[in-house]
């Protein structure tokens, strides 16, 4: 038996221009299924990272913040991925269909908002039948119906405020609906004001904006109630009074540090507050003042402007916060450090606490280190990846993406079906 070699012109299937319309559609749909299967695996890894909690070692405030920094995601996208990853662990049937490439991430994201172990199987079938847009709309309607269910009114309203043993302030309360609505509106107004300032500060920047937290909004409401501008810089913003022994700032951790009309605080907390605050030197004997010095600012206004122009927000790796930032002395002024731009760095309140009380460190070259002494990179480099091997493994996934039946959806019937599930 012989072989005859002929000149055969083969198409370059890697070039989309050489593909027919049917071939384009087939490969597009197949890769969509591969993307879904790969996303399922990716979220499985996110869930395990979240479970182990190792992300905290890099100084990030949450797994979502770490994910946004490590994988170059928008913060809101990272938060949604972490939410879905957490829910998938309790939804094995939806997770299995996702891993097989049957469900897209858009469908899984919608299903994880309403599914539980009792309704998972029924909702999975609806997920296969509906398009992604139909499923999203049905889930939104279902959530509105649920929110309209009757709830018992609270018998009484109360707000309790107390100092915890560790010095933190705890707030707990319950308000009547009309009172609660005013509080929510005040917090929202404060959040809008903080967001507007953040947009102004980031004008022309390509960095993603971080939304102000409820805690920051509450602090802004408190500032407004006290007649202060929430946007004032560090030295003018701190209005709390801390009584500190002179030796405490210089390095005596056994010295006393006490909030005026409040609990004791750690000496390192006092050093953090003194990094960027107005300082008054007072001499006392047996609790009675002998001499009161003039109030001085540790960071002069001109130096603060130069520091803001250089750092443009918190310099901690992965942090994009531009609100409520403090000027941190790399070498504390009470220990001989200079109040100069070479010895200063801007840090948000959370990362300023980590550097002082959390065991993290920063040096004069603005390199950051975790409590184990390992350097925290400002940006991650992509790991070496064999793209061909990954693509080959992805192509082993079945082409089973369920796009939906395409039939017109009756919203009332869809919500009824979700409620029944």
Overview of this protein structure:
This protein is α+β, with helices and mostly antiparallel strands and 421 residues long. The protein has three domains: 16-150 and 403-420, no CATH class; 158-225, no CATH class; 234-376, no CATH class. The chain is built from 16 helices and 13 strands. The chain has helices at residues 21-52, 63-70, 75-88, 92-99, 105-111, 120-129, 132-147, 177-201, 214-225, 234-237, 246-250, 267-275, 301-311, 349-356, 387-394, 411-420, and strands spanning 158-163, 169-174, 242-244, 257-259, 278-279, 282-285, 288-292, 296-297, 325-329, 344-348, 361-362, 368-369, 375-376. It starts with 20 loop residues before the first helix and ends with a helix.
Topology, element by element:
Elements lengths: L20 H32 L10 H8 L4 H14 L3 H8 L5 H7 L8 H10 L2 H16 L10 E6 L5 E6 L2 H25 L12 H12 L8 H4 L4 E3 L1 H5 L6 E3 L7 H9 L2 E2 L2 E4 L2 E5 L3 E2 L3 H11 L13 E5 L14 E5 H8 L4 E2 L5 E2 L5 E2 L10 H8 L16 H10 L1
Antiparallel strand pairs: 1-2, 3-4, 5-8, 6-7, 9-10, 11-12, 12-13
């Amino acid at each position: 038996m012989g072989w005859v070699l002929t000149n055969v012109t083969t198409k370059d299937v890697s070039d989309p221009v050489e593909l027919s319309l049917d071939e384009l559609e087939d490969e597009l749909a197949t890769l969509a299924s591969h993307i879904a299967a790969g996303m399922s695996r990716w979220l499985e890894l996110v869930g395990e990272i979240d479970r182990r909690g190792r992300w905290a070692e890099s100084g990030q405030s949450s797994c979502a913040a770490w994910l946004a920094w490590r994988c170059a995601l928008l913060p809101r996208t990272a938060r949604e991925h972490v939410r879905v990853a957490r829910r998938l662990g309790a939804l094995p049937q939806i997770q299995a269909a996702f891993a097989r490439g049957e469900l897209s991430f858009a469908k899984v994201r919608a299903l994880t908002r309403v599914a539980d172990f009792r309704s998972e199987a029924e909702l999975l079938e609806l997920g296969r039948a509906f398009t992604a847009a139909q499923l999203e709309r049905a889930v939104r309607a279902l959530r509105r119906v649920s929110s309209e269910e009757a709830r018992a009114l609270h018998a009484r309203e109360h707000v309790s405020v107390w100092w915890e043993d560790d010095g933190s302030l705890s707030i707990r309360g319950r308000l009547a609906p009309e009172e609660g609505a005013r509080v929510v509106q005040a917090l929202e107004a404060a959040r809008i004001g903080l967001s507007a300032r953040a947009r102004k500060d980031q004008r022309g920047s390509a960095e993603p904006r971080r939304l102000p937290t409820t805690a920051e909004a509450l602090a802004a409401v408190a500032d407004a109630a006290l007649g202060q501008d929430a946007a004032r810089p560090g030295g003018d913003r701190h209005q709390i009074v801390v009584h500190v022994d002179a030796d405490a700032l210089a390095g005596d951790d056994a010295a006393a540090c006490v909030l005026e009309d409040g609990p004791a605080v750690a000496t390192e907390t006092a050093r953090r507050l003194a990094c960027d605050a107005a300082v008054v030197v007072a001499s006392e004997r047996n609790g009675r003042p002998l001499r009161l010095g003039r109030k001085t600012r540790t960071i002069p206004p001109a130096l603060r402007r130069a520091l803001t122009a250089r750092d443009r927000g918190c310099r901690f790796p992965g942090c994009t916060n531009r609100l409520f930032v403090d000027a941190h002395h790399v070498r504390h002024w009470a220990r001989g450090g200079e109040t100069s731009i070479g010895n200063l760095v801007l840090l948000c309140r959370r990362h300023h606490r980590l550097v002082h009380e959390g065991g993290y460190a920063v040096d004069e070259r603005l390199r950051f280190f975790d409590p184990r002494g390992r350097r925290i990179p400002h940006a991650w480099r992509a790991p070496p990846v064999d793209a061909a091997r990954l693509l080959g493994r992805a192509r082993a996934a079945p082409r089973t993406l369920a796009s939906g039946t395409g039939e017109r959806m009756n919203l009332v019937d869809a919500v009824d079906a979700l409620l029944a599930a």
